[in-house]
Design a protein that fits this description.
Layout (H helix, E strand, L loop, with lengths): L3 H17 L4 E17 L2 E19 L2 E7 L4 H17 L32 H16 L4 E20 L4 E17 L6 E9 L8 H14 L9 E7 L1 H4 L1 H9 L2 H6 L19 E3 L22 E5 L2 E2 L6 H7 L7 E2 L7 E2 L4 E3 L6 H5 L4 E9 L9 E12 L2 E14 H6 L1 E3 L9 E2 L3 E9 L2
Helix pairs in contact: 3-4
Family: Belongs to the peptidase U62 family.
GO molecular function, one term: metallopeptidase activity
Protein name: TldD/PmbA family protein
């Protein structure tokens, strides 16, 4: 695979071709990926996969008109044809007064921060198979597990580079290692499934296969013989696996495009209290070996740790250059770019700070409530904040997590839910978005 410097040179080359072909401005992104995956089921090898790709995306501007094209054919002849097609398309496109490259004076200058995103270690297919098998074996060894959907292990390396016609060029490489298991407990119509997985940038930071396998098995067995929830208003406690989804609804509501289109339930919330006092939500692109760390954004702007919510108050929108211009503001370094189309908006390593109480204390005064471990469906209205999703989990009775329950719905409005949210002190950085266990009082639960 190409180095990050070679990838940067590829992106710079096609930008230069676009300018020579008549573009007033251009930017390009180059992305290469190589990955290996092995899966086993019931102790036998089920699949071995290897994929490699190199793709390039080009965006050109002719005045206020723009066009985007992408290709995986990186020959010189194909590049010339791609550039000609892009410029011709831009000349025929409608004008967009807000589109354009990022402000030149804001571009990242100098060396990007060192984020330790690449591990030189490699795993052979035989080693991946051994890890996958050990993960599944540990899950199947849990008493009560009766079947398996498989164990898996993967290793990948990616290179990303961005170049613009007004002075930015940069690239970086990342690696990723992962393992997972999904198993079934019980028999017949009473079967229950659950899973566990872990990902890391560095091989030595990956959890042990036995740890992930046992967790998958334990979760599946714990769900056996679920009962029903009664309906009513009650506290809902969200496991970190599902609680992280609330931050996705927040970032969607504060993204520049949503604010510019006036399609957000938080449209007028900037500078106001949207969470309870003490709540802090941060985005940290500089987290060493973070799963979503990056040295620059999708437009070549520098990135830095940012508090989106401080002491419960919403501090910022998430802005790319286009939405910033439309709103009369400055971009915030949250542009994200794929090989196809214009930049969008995205966070990096997003997390909600830990609270001050253990999970046991968080639920100790709940006489009747529910601990949610799985969400089903997508019943969220980003315009109004109305929230209604199917769920499964465990009953909370007299301050204790007791029996499993399934086929119920939790509902509310995200504005009210955010204000009523209380975090526990068990924050762990395991995923791209991380939250501690969360309690939300006063939600509506509808039993099946």
């Amino acid at each position: 695979m190409l180095t990050s410097d070679q990838a940067r040179d590829r992106a710079q080359d096609i930008v230069a071709r676009a300018v020579r072909a008549g573009a007033d401005a251009a930017d390009a992104i180059f992305a290469a990926d190589a990955s290996s995956e092995v899966s086993v089921r019931l102790g036998k090898l089920e699949d071995v996969g290897r994929s490699e790709s190199e793709d390039l995306g080009l965006r050109v501007f002719v005045g206020h008109r723009s066009a985007s094209v992408s290709t995986s054919d990186l020959s010189s002849q194909a590049m010339d044809a791609l550039v000609e097609r892009a410029v011709a398309m831009a000349r025929e496109a409608p004008e967009d007064l807000w589109a354009g490259l990022a402000p030149e004076e804001r571009l990242l200058r100098g060396a990007p921060p060192a984020l330790d995103l690449e591990d030189r270690a490699e795993l052979s297919p035989a080693e991946l198979r051994e890890i996958a098998a050990a993960t599944e074996d540990a899950a199947r060894a849990v008493p009560g597990v009766t079947n398996s959907e498989g164990g898996g292990a993967s290793a990948s390396r990616s290179v990303i580079a961005l170049a613009t016609s007004h002075g930015f060029a940069g690239g970086y490489a990342t690696t990723g290692f992962g393992l997972s298991a999904s198993v079934i407990a019980g028999e017949g119509g009473g079967m229950q499934r659950d899973y566990a997985f872990h990902s890391a940038r560095h091989r030595h930071r990956l959890n042990a296969p036995e740890t992930i396998g046992r967790e998958a098995g334990r979760r599946a067995v714990a769900r056996l013989d679920p009962g029903r929830m009664e309906s009513g208003a009650m506290p809902v406690v969200l496991d970190p696996r599902v609680g992280a989804g609330l931050l996705g609804h927040l970032t969607g509501a504060i993204s520049g495009p949503s604010i510019a289109r006036k399609t957000s339930f938080l449209l007028d919330a900037l500078g106001t209290r949207v969470f309870a006092a003490g709540i802090r939500i941060c985005d940290d692109p500089h987290r060493p070996h973070g799963l979503r760390s990056r040295p620059f954004d999708g437009e070549g702007l520098p990135v830095s740790p940012t508090a989106l919510v401080e002491d419960g108050v919403l501090e910022t929108w998430l802005l790319d250059s286009a939405s910033a211009r439309q709103l009369g503001l400055e971009p915030t370094g949250h542009a994200a770019r794929g090989v196809g189309g214009a930049p969008g908006v995205s966070t990096s390593n997003l997390y909600l700070d830990a609270g001050h109480v253990p999970v046991e204390t968080l639920i100790a005064d709940i006489v009747s409530g529910v601990y949610v471990t799985e969400m089903i469906g997508h019943g969220v209205n980003g315009v109004t904040g109305d929230y209604s999703r199917g769920a499964a989990g465990f009953r909370i009775e007299n301050g204790e997590i007791t029996r499993p329950v399934a086929e119920f719905t939790i509902a509310g409005n995200l504005k009210d839910m955010f204000l009523a949210l209380t975090p526990a002190n068990d924050l762990e950085f395991r995923y791209g978005t991380n939250v501690p266990t969360l309690r939300i009082d006063g939600m509506t639960v509808a039993g099946g």
